[in-house]
Amino acid sequence: MPKLWNETIEAHRRDVRDAILETTAALVAEHGLLSVTMSQIAEETGIGRATLYKYFPGVEAILVAWHERQITGHLEYLAEVRDQAGDAGKRLEAVLEAFALISHEYHGHHNTELAAFLHRDEQVAQAQRQLSDLIRDLLTEAAEIGDVRDDVAPDELASYCLHALTATGSLPSKAAVRRLVTVTLAGLRPPR
């Protein structure tokens, strides 16, 4: 087959897969995890059930794939933020703020039933390790130039940051999120 034909087929498959993921996430958000069926997803997506089953064996598999895409997108975004900022201290601040805003938005849009289902996956544990490593590395760099305390291990400081900023899910506004980032950064400064 010509290369253009293969690329067109792959693009179509990606588009169908993305439509399935988005439709399923919207249906679960509207009706709840246990109320959504493959028939509903096929109908809302505008494809046949047989086609849907060629992509995914069930609703749970669709949600896991949707969540993996979300996680991957968040990690890629945080890496971009890290790579755009200036010195180590600025990069750390930019990444912590971006993570806090993601956490704030994510917790504001997801119900606890869905979160409990999705967060039992190994993909989440792996993503948390990647995120912790990213922040630990930034903390290490910032400590080397004196922007961050060096009397506490970077792994412990990374854990402190992640736990503190996960609390943004309960905050009322982005301004409140930014204030929490400021307080978290203050806790990272070297002791006087």
Question: Would you write up a description of this structure?
Answer:
The protein has 192 residues and is mainly α. It folds into 2 domains: 1-57, Arc Repressor Mutant, subunit A (Orthogonal Bundle); 60-192, Tetracycline Repressor, domain 2 (Orthogonal Bundle). Helix content is 78%, strand content 0%. The chain has 9 helices and no strands. Helix 1 crosses helix 2 (38-45) and helix 4 (59-84) packs antiparallel against helix 5 (88-109).
Distance from N terminus to C terminus (CA atoms, Å) equals 68 Å
What is the mean predicted local confidence, pLDDT? 89
CATH topology of the largest domain: Tetracycline Repressor, domain 2
Give the ordered list of helices and strands. HHHHHHHHH
Tally of helical segments: 9
CATH class of the largest domain: Mainly Alpha
Structural class: mainly alpha
User: What's the CATH H-level superfamily name of the largest domain?
Assistant: Tetracycline Repressor, domain 2
Q: Can you give the helix content as a percent range?
A: over 70%
Categorize the overall geometry.
elongated
Note the topology.
Blueprint: H1 3-31, H2 38-45, H3 49-55, H4 59-84, H5 88-109, H6 112-118, H7 122-144, H8 154-166, H9 174-188
Helix pairs in contact: 1-2, 1-4, 2-3, 4-5, 4-7, 5-7, 5-8, 5-9, 7-8, 8-9
